Amino acid sequence: MIAVHYRFRKYIFLKTAMSFNRTDSATYLAGQLAKAFTRSLHARAAALGFSPGQLPVLIELWAEDGLTQKQLLDRVGIEQATMANTLARMQRDGLIERRPHPSDRRAQLVYLTEKARGMEAEAIRVAREADDALFAGFRRFERELLMEYVRKIIENARKEG
Q1: Could you tell me if 54 and 95 are in contact, meaning their C-beta atoms sit under 8 angstroms apart?
Q2: What distances in angstroms separate CA 48 from CA 70, 126, 128, one per listed residue?
Q3: In sequence order, what are the residues at sequence separation of 6 or more whose Cβ sits closer than 8 angstroms to the Cβ of residue 117?
């Protein structure tokens, strides 16, 4: 009896796993949406001299220049190693410079270069173009509603994590 029950449960599990429809998975769809936005922004951003992964850092520094790497980590919400690599590439590409922190010898402050400051308006424009391309065919209220839902999902995810 136990063996039959085990086989039955295994069959149910296999049937459920095989019938999984990824288009019904919010996690799968969110990943696809992130990829679509990155592809949409990539060519536009490359023409200006930055990558899609650098945009969140640029946005934070445009709002408040001279942040520490830790402050950027907290605001952008990526892993420390990813932030370190992103900042290294941005420094190599002439977008940021690092300066010693005035009161903490272990920390450095991250500042935008003139090149990065000068691309703000154009970078925001191309990010909006990428958004608009993905929202083609949506009515304004549909776009606003989707954005509200996405914000709520992100809020829930932060509570979870």
Answers
A1: yes
A2: 27, 9, 14
A3: 62
Distances (CA, A) of 14 to 3, 26, 98, 99: 16, 21, 54, 56
Look at residues 73, 99, 100 and name the one whose alpha carbon lies nearest to residue 85: 73
Across the chain, mean pLDDT equals 87
Per-residue pLDDT tens for 35-84?
Answer: 988 888 888 888 888 888 899 999 999 999 999 999 999 999 889 999 99
Contact 44, 130 (CB under 8 A): yes
Rounded-to-integer distance, Cα 122 and Cα 116, Å: 10
130: tokens are 């990428």
Three-class SS of residue 108? strand
pLDDT digits (tens, 9 = 90+) for 138-159: 999 999 999 999 999 989 988 8
Can you read off the two tokens belonging to residue 4? 């039959």
Cα(116)–Cα(137) distance, integer angstroms = 33
pTM: predicted TM-score of the whole model, two decimal places:
0.75
| Residue 18: predicted pLDDT | 59
Domains of the chain, each with CATH number or no CATH:
22-49+119-161 (no CATH), 59-115 (1.10.10.10)
Q: Which residue do the tokens 């445009």 mark?
A: 62
Contact assessment for residue 36 and residue 52, using Cβ atoms and an 8 Å cutoff: no
